[in-house]
## 1
Amino acid sequence: MAAEVASPATVRVCPLEELKRDLFKVISAEGRVILVLFHEGEVFSLDNRCPHMGFPLSQGTVREGILTCHWHHARFDLAGGCTLDPFADDVPAFATDVRDGVVFVDPHPISGDKRGHALCKLNEGLEHGLNLVLAKSVISLNELDASSEGLRQAAFFGLKNRAAGWSTGLSILTAMANVLPALTAEDRRLALFHGVVHVARSTANQSPDFDLEPLATRETRPERYVDWFRRFVDSRSEDAAERTLRTAIRIGLSQQVIATMLFAACTDHLYMDVGHTLDFTNKAFELLDHIGWEHAEAVLPSLVPHLVSAQRMEESSSWRHPVDLPDLLHKVHGELDGLLSEGGGRRRGWHGHAQLAQTILDGEPAKIIEALTESLRSGVALTDLSAAVAYAAALRPVHFHVSNEFGDWDTVHHTFTYTNAVDQALRRAPSSLLARGIFDGAMSVYLERFLNMPRQPLPSPSGQVTAGQLLAQFDVQGRVDETAQVVASLLAQGEHEVVVQTLGHALLREDAGFHQFQIFEAGVRQYRRFAGTPPGDHVLLGVARFLAAHSPTVRATGQTFDIAARLHRGEALYANQQGGAN
Ligand code: FES
């Protein structure tokens, strides 16, 4: 029925007697469709769209104060709109009034604490793995300019509800927070949604985490804590390492000392857990960049379970035969302090990244180590060397031939994300201990040389192309080289930011796995480092090829987000608003 506006905030519905007779009315006012019901002697008003997926509640059933939607059977309290089924969310309720035998409704929902409600729903979504609820929460928090609160809450949830410690979900959440500026406004919400979905998955069926207490001690020397922590990680003493770390944070040792302590433990052994250990540690510091160093004691101890249990590559035969890489590496590790004091990192404006990367890609281990040590001796900065190694690692997926086994994409991916993590960590907390990671990374690039045989050549630009053509490549399985071809053409057109945003969108519309999120974020980081040079273009080509190899997927996550976004915009997912509650 048509609504008649009786006052700025009050809409006339119908005479009370008419409502008693018909039991419900559906009216439209101020862009909303409102269901007004008479039940057990009272008048109630609710938004007529089921908050779950928009089915008209006027087609539901009312019994004993509960309205049941007929679509997925979510139930709502008539008196307040709260759902009894968390998957559905609460339905907005409206104030009603009966004056002179006529029913009026205020078309503005009874609003409580919107921010608190969205955060509460975020928690429920995380607890129960409800993706649609998570999507709605992320969208609401974005609209309320409270995305950073959502990020912090999701991170705390992921930390407290997983005794096994830091998770891939937390890495994805942090990686997506890192790349937000590179994405379109629409994709930023979707990126955070992926992050919280993966946090929920990482905590599903996990034991909660219980903290150990810091030591009650007068010991305050930073070097003592660094030594203790490294010793306890080395001997795989999880509780001792956790208490040491908690104490170091609690007594207020600097961020630099804590970072040195953790990154040293990550590089005391070679390429731990195919690089994940250092990558997770770097991500934990990046998470603290987003939520504040004051949360260090909540975040960093989550790294300990992984640190003490990680595989150490000196235990792996591929690192021992035919060349004993640990022998070579341990020797150079022992020389690093001397090399650094000799070179002093004094060379500014060094541009030898591409040349050094070629040596790492094609050289033998002793030659690679010599090239790196000579660079250090001549004053090349640690972060220039780490960038050169990351660039070498980025070239492996560029030249990866699709005749390799599919699983080998992960091999080249691991090295690239590890070398990127070393590069990021060195910018945060440079040290000769962490510099060992540069050499480990270079050896991992060396070990993967067979994955560039045959070597896929760089694609050449071929005519004018659009972002739409790039996106279309990801609709067909296996278009790895075709995708690189389109990227090369877009880059030749100077559309670098279009490439970054389109790759971001191509990632976010898929049901992407951990490695796709990782490689995109690492790629954006290294692209920014080399932007405006051929290495920058090469990084993007490698990311594009990796993402194309893993697309398309079912795209269910994006579909859920799209439903939530349409509901939030007030779109009618179901056109038929007729029929009746009974
Ligand atoms: S329960 Fe109402 S639309 Fe799903």
## 2
Amino acid sequence: MPNNMSSEKVELKLLDNGLHFLIIGMNSESLNFGAKKDFLYWKYAILNFYSGIELLLKDRLLREHWALIFENIENANVQKLQSGDFLSVNYNSLITRLKNISKIKFKDVDERSIDELRKLRNKIQHYEFSLAITECKTIIAKALNAVLDFIDLNYKKTQLTTQQAELIQSIRYNAYNFAEYIDYKKILNSEILTKANKNGVVSPCPICEETTVVSFKNKKSRCVICNYSSANDEIAKSEYLQSIINRVEKILVEEKCSCGGNLIKYYNPMKIPQKIIAYCFKCGEKESMRLTNEFIEKK
Ligand SMILES: [Zn+2]
Ligand SMILES: [Zn+2]
């Protein structure tokens, strides 16, 4: 590499740029990804979300060697890289170079999900399109899973600046509030959830708040949605209760369950769709109910 510093600078910018596109695609400022019903909102969510993913993939390739993000490597030079005045690698070459040169492994399902988003984005950008909002949400949920997998597998903590790590964290927390993403993760992990329901324990998670922490005898407990882990299900449950109590934005009511155990009912205004979660620490998750004003006033 002729000029180490210059490519490093581009590297940082590229990743930050990609993460910002993802955040904008998720409308993170108001933390209400999934709440908007406006069709135009979803159109721009798809455009921004795809741009974010493409920039992240390019950033990973750039870390291999800066010349690889030129479509024609023979035309690569540092001045063009810095000015941004060059034809950058197209999508197919990008994926091929990541696989063949950087030895990146994509799960088939993730590669398909990114490609599905890309095709939809191309239709919006260059042609015309019609699509139900529910389909837009599903396509983004799958691509979101793919990009979070990609980040997990390809960026070590030591390779990220504090700001980049914070942006990634904020993307994750937005994902936990996006119902379609949660549903998709539950489908991907349905086998282990069924197994744990039968032969182990499934308990609520202190991080993503879904009832998706699976525990088997003599094995660590792990959340299939956010990867939270603890030594066993008892620790997971007490950390969950603590996390609910600690978060002041939640409205919490404690009651006795018919089984004699302690039942908590709470509502988290950040979660969409908004509902009351009831959980008994003896007999498990009881139900989730539609949120009523009555419940909010009760507190
Ligand atoms: Zn979790
Ligand atoms: Zn109970």
## 3
Amino acid sequence: MRKASTEPLTCSACGSDSVIQIDMTLPDGTEVVFNSCHVCEAKWWDKEGEPIEVDGIIDLVGE
Ligand SMILES: [Zn+2]
């Protein structure tokens, strides 16, 4: 078993572990994590460990 402070991240689309994470705070104070895969360019968002809809984020971040 691994004992890492952060869970190993793998892309749900291609299985690569070349995923970057960027912590962000939305204008309403919601803390989210932006994930992006270097291999297949999949992008997704997590909020408190749960995947969330990108459309919702765009509504919150977009101008
Ligand atoms: Zn990928």
